[in-house]
Amino acid sequence: MGEEIPDEIDLKETVQQGKEEQMNQQMERIKSNMEKIKHKLVIISGKGGVGKTTVAVNLAMSLASVGEKVGILDVDITGPNVTKMLGVSNDLKPRVDPDKKSFYPVNGPMNIKVLSMSFLTQDTDTPVIWRGPMKMGAVRQFLGDAQWGELDYLVIDLPPGTSDETLDILQLIPEENIIIVSTPQEVALLDARKTIRMAQIMERNVLGIIENMSGFACPHCDKHIDLYPPGGAEKASNDFDVPLLGKIPFEIEVSQQGDAGLPFVLKYPDSESTKAFKIAVNSIKKHLS
Fold first, then answer.
1. How far apart are CA 242 and CA 180, in angstroms?
2. Quick one: DSSP state of residue 146?
3. Is 72 a residue whose pLDDT tops 90?
4. pLDDT for 42-56, tens place per residue?
5. Residue 236 lies in a domain
6. Which of 13, 52, 108, 283 is least enclosed, having the fewest CB within 10 Å?
7. What digits encode the pLDDT tens for the residues 173-220?
């Protein structure tokens, strides 16, 4: 009798099965990694220009300053500015462990663990021109293949709006806590409200709102002056039944220190903005306890 000829192998099906198996393994790594981190703070905004990254960096520094183990992940693919604001050189690169097929975040100020898309670019002038699948692949690697270790907080700085990265992060991270950053400006709040609604539709926990650039003190008379009509953040907080975590006043030194690569809360520990960040951190810890 001749040998029985096996059925023809379906190469497309085999390749698809391989991809699914690889994806399942990566999802398991993400789950295992995230289980070692007590609290995941996802910082998002409805639009750009509201100081989202400034808030993320100074929140991370404020948490580290009270003894928390903190990491910060910058997945703003096209505008990764976390390393600049922390004073971490892009010449530093994550250490790779080829045996474990993983890599380690870079140590930043106050031992904050830092990962950013900026580590993958040649220089600060090189844009990241990637399509969706490439961006999502990088996000999953940051979450699953990076050795974050045990942390109290992982602060994740997302791109503005409701892009692929935002949706993917919200689907990938278990038990994340979303913080919405907005200015009091009506246009910013319109977009912030949409972002809150998106998170609620996805049944994700919205920890609260932080209002940035919330007025400033006149340098001549010390009187509080509103840059925009006030009350919008409070109204959004009430309308969506989410806490208002803090109101960060406008101080020109905040942006100056971000450009200089030294977080504001370290340079000016007694300023009104630093006090406001401490209030926000206390609110966050209270709601998470």
1. 10
2. B
3. yes
4. 998 877 778 889 899
5. yes
6. 13
7. 878 899 999 888 777 777 888 888 888 888 889 999 999 888 777 777
SS3 284: helix
The burial class, CB within 10 Å (0-12 / 13-18 / 19+), for 33 is: buried
Give the residue among 249, 205, 213 at the shortest CA–CA distance from 42: 205
Domain span at residue 276 reads 38-288
CATH number of the domain encompassing residue 121:
3.40.50.300
Query: Has residue 29 been placed in a domain?
Result: no
The verdict on residue 56 lying in a domain is yes
Q: Are 136 and 98 in contact (CB under 8 A)?
A: no
Instruction: Please check whether residue 24 lies inside any domain of the structure.
Output: no
Q: Are 44 and 93 in contact (CB under 8 A)?
A: no
Hey, which residues does 102 pair with through a beta bridge? 97
How many domains are there within the chain?
1
- State residue 103 phi and psi, 5-degree precision: -145, 165
Structure tokens at 248: 């960060």
* Measured CA distances, 116 to 87, 103, 238, 246, 249 (Å): 13, 13, 34, 26, 27
The 8-class DSSP code of residue 219 comes to T
With a CB cutoff of 8 Å and minimum separation 6, the contacts of 195 are 44, 45, 46, 161, 162, 180
**β-strand partners of 178:** 42, 206
Please list the alpha-helical segments (H only) found in 124-182.
Answer: 132-144, 164-172
Strand partners, 39: 153
Q: Residue 247 corresponds to which amino acid?
A: K
CA dihedral 110, 116, 122, 125 (to 10 degrees): -90
